[in-house]
Amino acid sequence: MDTRAWLEYVFGAGEGQAVVTLRNPTTGKPTDDNFYLYPDEIDLMVEYIDAHNEQDVYYSPVLYNQSRRLKQNSKTVSVAYSDADACAPSNYRVAPSAAVETSPGRWHVYWVLDGDYNPHTVALLNRRMAQAHKHQGADVNFGNMAKLLRVPGTANVKHVAVVQQPIINGAIYSLAELEAAYPVGEFPEKVYAIDRPMPQGLPSRTQLLSEIPNDRTIKELLFKDNFDNVDRSSVRYKLESELFRAGYAPEEILTLVWDAPCCKYKQEGRPIEQLWKEVLIAEVDPRNQPPVFDPNDPIFESDNQPLVVLQTKLEPINLLTDDERDSLTVRFPDEWVAWAKTKTTSHPKYHRMSALMAMSAVYSEFGYVPLEFTNMLLNIWAMLLGNTTLDRKTTAKDYMIDILEALETPDFQYNIGTDATQQGLNKALADKPHQASLLHKDEVQGFFKELFTQSFLSGLVEYFTELYSGKSRGTLRSTGDKQIIKAVPTSFLLYLMGITEEATELLTVKHFKSGFLTRFIYSVVEPTPYDPKKDLVRQAPIVQGKYVDPVRNGLIKSLAIGRNHWEMKGTRDNKQPIRLNQDALDRFNEFRIYINEVIANMPQVEILRAPIERLTISVIKVAGLFAMHDRSSTITLDHMLAAIHYCEEWYDDLIKISTMVSESIWQREVGQLEAFIVSKGGKATWESCYKQFPDKLPQDFRIMVQALEDRGVLIQHKMGIKMVLEINYGSNATSIA
Length: 737
Hints:
- This protein is an alpha/beta fold and 737 residues long.
- Helix content is 42%, strand content 16%.
- It folds into 4 domains: 3-184, RepB DNA-primase, N-terminal domain (Alpha-Beta Plaits); 205-288, no CATH class; 327-530 and 547-660, Rossmann fold (3-Layer(aba) Sandwich); 680-727.
- It starts with a helix and ends in a 10-residue tail after the last strand.
């Protein structure tokens, strides 16, 4: 059985993010996880596995909601499974559907299920099976839905062996059949927890502290050092529980709690194994468990398999009901993506945004949505972020420019190039009153650096904000006699591209609260392993005569027909109102309330409130564009649902960006602390350092100090009654100042 056939066998009809990773031969730990959208990117996943089949290659049978291998992100699973280790497959009460010998006498076993099940439910079954066969050699540590298995046909470097091809008997089981053989209650969860041995090697506490969520409860518990009239044990258990609910793994919680002031085990010189048992008891506490769904719940189909998993604040958002999702029809951006994917390897997200931008250019000249306090223009701003040129952001933009240029006539000129200065824009817009103008700019990180640091550009942010609202400023023309050109109405479109990490390093909470950055729809593509085999240079095919792309022509024609329709109904200076019907308006308000409730308890809420407000407004804009493309003066429920559907992707990417901005801000602040101590001769009191960060709680400041200390650049010691922080660059120190 080849790699592709094996993955299809294990994943079944599931859909989600599949993960594969390699084992570091030095540390013995997994390297960075590589995620692939299954089934769309199965070919890329297979190629990656086969290219590394002489290494230790691991994967998870679970499909996830997002690209992070945490148990709360697990979405669906089509097999039960066990690290049988030395337990022979024949020992199991139900014959495994497949058995994989990972080294001589060591096994992974699988039971293929009759559908896609909730991973949290299957994980409990996996644990019971492991416990039942513990005395025969089964690994009782295996059961968490974020654990990994070896891929058949790859190397087992540790045991100098090859992971054998699976032995398959073809059996398919229902979950009920397996649970009957390994019934609930046979092994108490606490017995399973207490029996688990200490993990070999713990994660870096510095790294964990640098990623701590901006959760006031967790931070207060983690650094609380005043226990007057407070039971230290209850504080510790609550901290463990809160960390589990936030998605931390047991070994991560052990690392964090062991050095916390509430940990009496370390302070009393007791072994860390005692804390480990307590952590595992907290793990199986029902209050700390992910939800296990009732198959009779109305969110389930008639086959009794879960369609969705209850969301956490970090998971992709689900803004539509199942019935609404089933009712969605193909829209112009979907047609565009299907065409563009045959031309370039640019990510579909980029093509989708390019299609919306083209629609905005064509239709924003002729329509607006009348709301109570404003006549909302249909211009949109987009920011496409990725990693390198290999993401092909510019290629996606070039296809959009090609389509728009094909639509240009002496009366319709959309592309105004890349000149982002106020003088340049005034010149470009002065002769285009009421018209759509598209400014596009690559390397947005360089643009941001100038925009936010150069004093002579200080007014440009406000100028852009005015353009978004539809009004350009006047300019003094120097042709012949000088004359003042009055401000003109405009439909201004902005399309920016750049490197995610470099862009977010330049942004702050203040920037996100500003009127400028809140107006963008963000499209972020996460990194994927580079495969040179997928990036070969190829010659164009030989064709007789001039080749005409019929799909491209069809896209151009559909936009031209829509434009002609609206041009006949009115003029650019007399735009047509595109009104929402009551169903569309009610559904929009329902969506808007829900999405604001979702972010209310997020650690990034301070960053998110303003951009989320603008994001909901963009949904109305896009719904209006869909209506105009259908040559309708009314935004119907169908148009609104389509726009909300696209918003799911925009929301997820906004969360990614806001998280990266928060992390980069924290790194800058740690660097500022280091630089301040250096500026004082390498030594400063705790109080003087803390005064440099007046907005920080004491526990937040302790995290910063701990980060420098663990990095090996800072030591703490007493000088009289004062606590002193001293920079000491040892041989293993790393500085970010």
